[in-house]
């Protein structure tokens, strides 16, 4: 549910020099400087680093935490100055390089070091990038999860009977009645800790909605699991020092338990399986409306270059953060150098120890890497172009994520423009309209329980919209009466905890057609410039509109993620301020390895500089019973628009030939239809050709 929030309208005017036609077209080759690493490139970087004896790298899978391993490989974008030199003047393309994240778990000072590796496709060098960060801040890996689960099974052995009695499920020898868990973050209350609250759940479909009432705090800060321990236990509103203490008190009849009923598959409330009936309306077991393209795609995708109705851009799906658009142009004119997703956070309230400490910072959970397959007809129209992506994240080889991106043209269902020109005598002097369409570039991130649907929409009138829909399972806790102030009772033993979603975007507007002098020196020519238009003087601008604010997150953690403070922040562009978040903030938000706040604190001038806008959108989510089984997309969507404002001489969608104009014939009988597309779009929409009456009358 969205709380009413102030509707933000910001305005960014980036002034341009009216130098026509100086940019070479954005070709597939040019766009490729921004493309993600191919499987061959990922393998080349991996092989190169694995063969360096001084790094002592071992496979990610298996072994212990006290090892050196390669965690992440992704394309390192070229420096903006070099990229612009190439894009604007066609000089040598920048060398392709990779970013590699290495976990050093051995030695006296375990740490995480990032490297720049290049050139690709055949790497010859690697060098550190930035300062090493504390090993304790590392994202969780599949190996650590396996070790945590094994340790939990061992340390919770005294509670085997208890768990069986309260839930009918167990941790060992459990067949189809097994327990699983959700771990929350941050992992502790202070920098340097790795103490994680674990929520025990029944491993059935939609297990996120099936807590059994037990939460435990496991300290897994040491690299040797033999030294891990459970420090606190919470069950149904009561705290215990150890699992043994709970087991003993339970055996003595001192612990009030809540015995869960069994969950036969047929009645699972957490399942997508249809149940119930609408009591009105036609049968629902038939297909609904579909998108179709009677004359084929009206857009093109070549490699990572997209072209559509005046637009051209390069895109990538960055493993660490998600979709990035580069060199976004309209009619050959650059609008933005980069528009990209940076971070998504969700801060919770609760009475159980796990939910009261939950502050998810999703880049720390591999937000850009969990881009699973999109279903034709559901996640994207059947007509969409689907693309695979490759991630090397906590893996020992590139992993293919099939159909992870889709691109499609969407009829918006509302005209882009229309007018009925009444003659005020029961008819019209003309009717004219332009069908509404947008090109959508979409991917999703399934960050454990939640699914984000990330969209960039391109409209033929020069508007670019970003949207993020939230769906998937809500993060829940076991219902206790004390939890009610922090959420909604969603089911007998289930509390949906209140939380705030905030999403951060980077917009590097670059409304400039002047080629920089190569090599690039200093400030881009975003110069205040007055331009004579059709009889008027005006600024040429793009404005930013939209975005919903939300309550500020917990102050004590703002150092790590101050996104809630700023709906719109504008900074000078700096190569070392490329992203606003990092992989390591989630597990140490108290002393973050980098802070977006520092981008703003240097008190730099933003007058006549190359500027970057950072936009926060978000909403408060008070879970409600209709979040069962999943949060639904209607109403849970936020975003913003970049809109031309005196940028073009007129609405550039006048170039569209999909306009239809209808005028009454001079004879006074019938109408004359003027159009620039075939009369009928074809049978996939309707067999009836377009018709229009153009009269109105009382009935
Ligand atoms: Cu939510």
From TrEMBL:
Keyword Signal: yes
Keywords: Copper, Metal-binding, Oxidoreductase, Signal, TPQ
Annotated Copper amine oxidase N3-terminal domain residues: 138-237
Record protein name field: Amine oxidase
Organism: Thamnophis sirtalis
Cofactor comment: Contains 1 topaquinone per subunit.
InterPro entries: Cu_Am_Ox_Cu-bd (IPR049947), Cu_Am_ox_TPQ-bd (IPR049948), Cu_amine_oxidase (IPR000269), Cu_amine_oxidase_C (IPR015798), Cu_amine_oxidase_C_sf (IPR036460), Cu_amine_oxidase_N-reg (IPR016182), Cu_amine_oxidase_N2 (IPR015800), Cu_amine_oxidase_N3 (IPR015802)
PTM info: Topaquinone (TPQ) is generated by copper-dependent autoxidation of a specific tyrosyl residue.
Family the UniProt entry places it in: Belongs to the copper/topaquinone oxidase family.
């Amino acid at each position: 549910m969205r709380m009413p929030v102030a509707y933000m309208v910001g305005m960014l005017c980036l002034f341009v020099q009216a130098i026509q036609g100086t940019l070479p077209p954005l070709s597939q080759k040019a766009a490729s400087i921004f493309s993600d690493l191919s499987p061959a490139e990922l393998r080349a970087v991996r092989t190169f680093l694995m063969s360096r004896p001084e790094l002592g790298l071992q496979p990610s899978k298996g072994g212990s935490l006290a090892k050196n391993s390669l965690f992440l490989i992704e394309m390192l974008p070229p420096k903006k100055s070099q990229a612009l030199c190439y894009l604007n003047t066609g000089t040598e393309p920048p060398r392709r390089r990779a970013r590699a994240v290495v976990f050093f778990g051995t030695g006296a000072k375990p740490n995480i070091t990032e490297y720049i590796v290049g050139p690709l496709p055949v790497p010859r060098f690697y060098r550190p990038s930035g300062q090493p960060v504390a090993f304790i801040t590392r994202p969780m890996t599949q190996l650590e999860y396996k070790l945590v689960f094994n340790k939990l099974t061992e340390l919770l052995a005294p509670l085997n009977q208890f768990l069986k009695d309260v839930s009918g499920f167990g941790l060992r020898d459990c067949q189809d009645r097994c327990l699983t868990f959700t771990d929350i973050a941050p992992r502790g209350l202070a920098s340097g800790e790795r103490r994680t609250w674990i929520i025990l759940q029944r491993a059935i479909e939609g297990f996120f909605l099936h807590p059994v009432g037990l939460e435990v705090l496991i300290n897994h800060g040491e690299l040797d699991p033999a030294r891990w321990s459970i420090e606190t236990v919470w069950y149904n509103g009561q705290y215990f020092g150890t699992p043994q203490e709970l087991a003993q008190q339970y055996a003595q009849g001192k612990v009030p338990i809540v015995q869960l009923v069994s969950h036969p598959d047929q009645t699972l409330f957490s399942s997508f399986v249809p149940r119930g009936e609408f009591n009105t309306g036609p049968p629902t077991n038939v297909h609904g409306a579909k998108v179709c393209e009677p004359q084929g795609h009206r857009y093109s995708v070549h490699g990572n270059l997209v072209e559509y109705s005046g637009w051209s851009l390069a895109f990538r799906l960055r493993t660490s953060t998600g979709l990035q658009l580069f060199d976004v142009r309209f009619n050959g004119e650059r609008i933005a150098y980069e528009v990209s997703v940076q971070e998504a956070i969700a801060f919770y309230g609760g009475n159980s120890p796990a939910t009261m400490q939950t502050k998810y910072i999703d880049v720390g959970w591999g937000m850009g890497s969990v881009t699973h397959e999109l279903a034709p007809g559901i996640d994207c129209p059947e007509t969409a172009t689907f693309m695979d992506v490759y991630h090397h994240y906590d893996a020992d080889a590139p992993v293919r994520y099939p159909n992870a991106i889709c691109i499609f043209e969407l009829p918006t269902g509302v005209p882009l423009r229309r007018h009925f020109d009444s003659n005020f005598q029961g008819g019209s002097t003309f009717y004219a309209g332009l069908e509404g369409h947008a090109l959508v570039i979409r991917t999703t991130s399934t960050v454990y329980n939640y699914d984000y649907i990330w969209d960039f929409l391109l409209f033929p009138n020069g508007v670019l919209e970003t949207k993020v829909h939230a769906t998937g399972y809500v993060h829940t806790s076991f219902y206790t009466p004390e939890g009610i102030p922090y959420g909604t009772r969603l089911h007998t033993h289930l509390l949906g905890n209140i939380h705030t979603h905030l999403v951060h975007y980077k917009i590097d507007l670059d409304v400039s057609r002047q080629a920089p002098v190569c090599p690039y020196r200093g400030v881009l020519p975003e110069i205040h410039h007055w331009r004579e238009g059709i009889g008027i003087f005006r600024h040429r601008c793009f404005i930013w509109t939209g975005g919903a604010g939300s309550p500020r997150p917990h102050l004590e953690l703002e150092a790590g993620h101050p996104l809630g403070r700023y709906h719109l922040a504008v900074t000078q562009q700096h190569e070392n301020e490329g992203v606003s978040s990092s992989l390591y903030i989630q597990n140490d938000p108290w002393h973050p390895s980098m802070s977006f706040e520092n981008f703003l604190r240097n008190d730099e001038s933003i007058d006549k500089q190359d500027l970057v806008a950072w936009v926060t959108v978000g909403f408060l989510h008070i879970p409600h019973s209709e979040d069962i089984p999943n949060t639904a997309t209607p109403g849970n969507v936020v975003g913003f628009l970049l809109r031309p404002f005196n940028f073009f001489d007129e609405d550039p969608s006048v170039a569209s030939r999909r306009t239809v104009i209808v005028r009454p014939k001079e004879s006074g009988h019938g109408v004359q239809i003027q159009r620039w597309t075939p009369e009928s779009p074809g049978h996939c929409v309707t067999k009836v050709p377009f018709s229009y009456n153009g009269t109105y009358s009382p009935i």
